Amino acid sequence: MANSVKILFFDAKSYDQDFFDQTNRQFGYAIKYFSGHLNHDAADLTAGYDVVCGFVNDVIDKKTIARLKQNGIKLITLRSAGYNNVDLKAAYNNIHVVRVPVYSPYAVAEHAVALMMGLNRKIHKAYSRTRDGNFSLNGLLGFDMHGKTAGVIGTGRIGRCLIDILKGFGMNILAFDKKPDEAYARERGIRFVSQNEVFRHADIISLNCPLTPETQHMINEESITKMKDGVMIINAGRGKLIKTDALIKGLKSRKIGAAGLDVYEEESGYFFEDFSSYMINDDALARLLTFPNVLITSHQGFFTREAMTNIAQTTMENIREYFAGGYLKNEVCYRCGEDCKKKHKQRCF
User: Fold this and answer.
1) In the annotation, is 317 catalytic?
2) At what angle do helices 105-120 and 123-131 cross, to 10 degrees?
3) How many domains does the chain have?
4) Among 37, 67, 238, 265, which one carries the catalytic annotation?
5) 286-326 pLDDT, tens per residue?
């Protein structure tokens, strides 16, 4: 069966091909890579395929899914943990949707810390200076992270890895999670507090939660006013956790002392692509790039050798499970969401 399964990858970069071709030696699927994004128009390309493999900036909405159904697509497999770009309701009853829930929490947590350290010690500014022969220390003053308070919003796998790292620096940890684990808090010597307490008391706030209706724009004008003057905000989660206009206002007023962003609210038009020869037409993104106390990376928190290997392996296993006719442990669906596996011991539909 494996050799007859045809998979069309969207938004495929050279590194995707390298890792998936290596992993596919175990499976023997027929793979075609397409560099463009999956959307309603590009869905026409899926005729004759069994599976589409998408990424975070693909638009898998109702219109796209309708076209996928017409073309006989049986499975949408996401090589990401997030699935907020998929209309699960539209897919329900016709197309299964699977994801990669875990690839490397260490990768994302370590990248969040890299953003913190880079901003604090002005590494990006120092690098540019010394390349130009300027060895002055003026403007490069940082602070000891030891003894400072970090607010970690979201204590899933990534959040917990981040907490372990920050505890190693000797930081005090205030955590917020909609389902606080007090046993974990006692074991790690941290405290679960309200979201408002995190905002009021943290020197550094790191966002490590999924994007949901409750978390969208959790960083906004109101929440920023509650924060300490000079707070550092780190977002290696989802771009829409932060209301960009409010962030810019906070930076301009100096209420926010620094921001490290691996994700951006409207990133789909720019991230993962090379625009070095073009103007940035997104005014908010262009404005953020002018701030000396803002570090923006292009959604690369996941991008380690270990994570890419895990993404490829899990994606291929998801496809194997589907065509084997068994239980899909990484399925998400409109009826059950990501907790489907806890509610059913067989396919949802």
Assistant:
1) no
2) 60
3) 2
4) 238
5) 999 999 999 999 999 999 999 999 999 999 999 999 999 87
Active site residue 299: yes
Q: Is the residue at 348 inside a domain? A: no
Reduce the secondary structure of 16-79 to three states and give it as a string: HHHHHHHHHCCCCCEEEECCCCCCCCHHHHHCCCCEEEECCCCCECHHHHHHHHHCCCCEEEEC
* DSSP H helical ranges for 203-304: 221-225, 244-252, 283-288
Residues 138 and 97 in one domain: no
Catalytic residue among 157, 299, 321, 331: 299
> Residues with Cβ < 8 Å from 67, sequence gap 6 or more?
40, 43, 44, 46
Radius of gyration over every alpha carbon of the chain, rounded to an integer in angstroms: 21
Active site residue 201: no
Q: What is the pTM of this model?
A: 0.90
Q: Of 265, 267, 321, 331, which residue is the catalytic one?
A: 267
